[in-house]
Design a protein that fits this description.
The protein contains 14 helices and 7 strands. The chain is α/β, with parallel strands linked by helices and about 300 residues long. It folds into 2 domains: about 200 residues, 3-Layer(aba) Sandwich (Rossmann fold), CATH 3.40.50; about 30 residues, no CATH class. A 7-stranded parallel sheet has the order 3-2-4-1-5-6-7, sandwiched between helices. Helices cover about 45% and strands about 10% of the residues. About 5% of the residues have low confidence. The structure holds guanosine-5'-triphosphate and magnesium ion. Magnesium ion (MG) binds next to helix 3. The site of magnesium ion has 4 residues, from helix 3.
Length: about 300
């Protein structure tokens, strides 16, 4: 382990000096639990969530161009849905964003969501800190877009953009999960298609129900590039809302707790015992936690 940690430290050093191969290898090292010493100071992160197919990756492509012009270096961490059956990751987004990856100022990384619930692995925070220390000034995290789990992104990203499409059916899931309430920015994509205006009105109506609502519902077309500059300007001028810190910490706590339980070496055994009724859920939790503590995790 000490060897791997030394290696992670070396990779971090070369990544900070601008070596991209080392940066990629550093991300892999963090993924496997070998984390270099990080400063863990505030870094600029934006979570982008929204129903599957709403245009998150396409919008990110547009945002990249805008931020590059402003002199930023943009890193994208794309959470890939991992099939629970095959365990395989779909890297399609990576291909779509490859064009952007050609630039020296853009870094794209797909992350398998693994067995963690919420599709957000708990090392995501470390990846963001490392990227920030390596000089990436805009770190974007594209979530899987599965409603009730996407709320976990609030544990990792300082600010969150909720993207909707002309079909309002999808957003109801986000409303239920509380994402609409918490999102810092809201945008409706595909303004070139019919139904986008009514989606904006629907969202405004939902937001209007809460008092002191100041958020604007942006209308954009990631395909045609319209409305993006205004959205970027809202994002760039937004102050971090510190009252959200507690919400973020809560989501991070839940996320880490989930992953501790789900990555427990005896999880299958406990599930079998629960199925056969030989233990209760409380028994299972108590034993698992005792084992986790005795291992000193
Ligand atoms: N008409 C129109 N199509 C768009 C727009 N933005 C994205 N699309 C199309 O919508 C489809 C899905 O776009 P993606 O960017 O892959 O959407 P996504 O939200 O990243 O999808 P997942 O990652 O699979 O959840 C693609 O065929 C895009 O070309 C838009 O503004 N207008
Ligand atoms: Mg995508």
């Amino acid at each position: 382990m000490a060897l791997e940690l030394n290696e992670a430290q070396e990779l971090f050093k070369s990544a900070k000096n601008g070596d991209r191969r080392s940066l990629s290898r550093l991300m892999t090292s963090i993924e496997s639990g070998n984390i270099p010493n990080l400063e863990r100071k505030q870094c600029w992160t934006l979570g982008i969530t929204g129903p599957p197919g709403v245009g998150k990756s396409t919008l990110i492509g547009q945002m990249i161009s805008h931020w590059l012009v402003k002199g930023h270096r943009v890193a994208i961490l794309a959470l890939d849905p991992t099939s629970p059956v095959s365990g395989g990751s779909f890297l399609a987004d990576r291909v779509r964003m490859d064009q952007a990856d050609l630039s020296e100022e853009v870094f794209v990384r797909s992350i398998a969501s693994g067995s963690n619930t919420g599709g957000i692995p708990n090392y995501l925070g470390e990846m963001c800190f490392a990227l920030s220390e390596c000089g990436w000034t805009r770190i974007l995290i594209e979530t899987v877009g599965t409603g009730q789990y996407d709320i976990r992104i609030f544990g990792y990203a300082q600010r969150v953009l909720l993207l909707d499409g002309p079909d309002r059916g999808d957003i109801i899931q986000a409303e239920k999960a509380g994402i609409l309430e918490l999102a810092d920015f809201i945008a409706v994509n595909k303004s070139d298609l019919p139904g986008s205006e009514s989606a904006v009105q629907g969202l405004k109506l939902s937001l209007g129900l809460s008092e002191n609502e100041k958020r604007k519902v942006h209308l954009v077309s990631a395909l045609e590039g319209t409305g993006i500059a205004d959205l970027i300007s809202t994002i760039d001028s937004c102050e971090i809302n510190d009252s959200r810190r507690k919400i973020r910490m809560r989501e991070m706590l839940i996320s880490n707790w989930d992953s501790l339980l789900l990555n427990h070496s005896q999880i299958d055994l406990y599930l079998e015992k629960l199925c056969s009724g030989s233990i209760t859920v409380n028994d299972a939790i108590n034993s698992m936690v005792r084992e986790i503590i005795s291992r000193g995790e």
